[in-house]
Amino acid sequence: MHHRFPPKLLLSPAIALLSCSKPPQSLLIPFPFYLRSRIPNPNSLLTPPTNSTSSIFRSFLHFPCRNFSSLSGTTMPRPKRSRFPSLILDDHEEVDFVEVVRLIREDSSRLEAELNQKNLMVSPSFVLEVLFALNKEGIPALRFFNWAMNCCPGFVPSAKIYNQLVNNLGRVDDYETMFGLLTKLSTRGFCLTEKAFAFLTLTRPDNLTSLVEKIVGILNGVGSCRGSGIFSLIRHLCSMNAFDLAISVMEKTSKSTRYYNALIAAKCKNGDFQGAREVFDEMSQSNCDPDMNSFNYILGCLLKYNRVNEACGLLETMERLGFTPDEITYELLVFHACKASRIDSATQFLDKMLLEGLRPRLKTHAAFIKGYFLLGREADAFKYVLDTSLRDKFSVNVNYSMLSSLFCKSKRVSEAGRILYEMMEKGYRPNQRVYFRVVKMLHKENKGDMASQLQNMFMKF
């Protein structure tokens, strides 16, 4: 028998809105710098089209915003890693992990022989955990890695493992081996990430400049890894607020929109809008035209700090310069509209997005679901999940699981269970973490029959 989720069971008193002050007036001149290569017909600059994204945005320009920080995720907040292992290892693997780290720490001349005697089940996740632990303690990992490569036929290192190994070589100052490894990775098509340069965080400030110069020299000679390496190095330096060094790397290698965007993103993350604006102007003067990522970083920063007048000005300028809002642009606008309790405006953004053939991202759906829920419009949140499931099959599992999670967090476990029941009845597998949490709470509330029913359905996946 098909059990529809009864909206009447969702009705509850509306959640009181938090009052906030009126958004501040614009503090800067109209944004941004006009680029010669993107200047359109002057007649098109007179007035923005009435159906433009910016005109929709202006419709709720002065509405108060409330606390909506919980919208940053798409499902459940990820648990913080408080200990090693950080990945899920079974009891046997965890015992092996502790023993292997101990052996490597002792640095015995018989390390390889002792590892062979352990009859270990070496998987990529196991090796990655060992590398995490060794990097945390600054212990050389090369012997262990070589042993795994030579003595474990089924072991195939992943890009994550190689990046952690590069990080380890940096922590133990073995740059000669690092050069050889990066050259090898280039021939195999691997890319570097910021994780490879995490060792820079531990470097003394007075040694950082010379070390970065050494790394740039290494990257310049290793082949195809250079591109991803330089980009990741710049991003990591920005995350350390070492912006001068990041710019120095660009000057020694090349200046590109992608590199400048890394600086803009870091400035915006720090809430330094003026600094982001200065980088934006500098990239224009360096013949690096901004792209939609450049605008989206700054737009997100303006909206985050409720500088909506400037955000609207930025949108208008984007449109006048011929830039078309993308999925991330609309996601930012939807998020802010829901934050301002203007889901009607958020819906306009969504409609415009769909008309332009853009698929909403998971965080866009999250904004609507949480927005409705926090306004006490749970039935509308459920309707949104249903409607979305008809046009976007890729988001169904996440959206249903999110709504169930919201009910669970609100101590309304019966509704959470009904959501999971309906999605599994339709053939969708719920988020495992949400499922276990709901079943656990059902048992605590002496609703074992419902929990058993969900468990029987979950076993089919």
Automatic annotation (TrEMBL):
Residue spans of the PPR repeats: 256-290, 291-325, 326-360, 396-430
Species of provenance: Rhynchospora pubera
InterPro entries: PPR_rpt, TPR-like_helical_dom_sf
Keyword annotations: Repeat, Transit peptide
PROSITE patterns: PPR (PS51375), PROKAR_LIPOPROTEIN (PS51257)
Protein name: Pentatricopeptide repeat-containing protein
Family per similarity comment: Belongs to the PPR family. P subfamily.
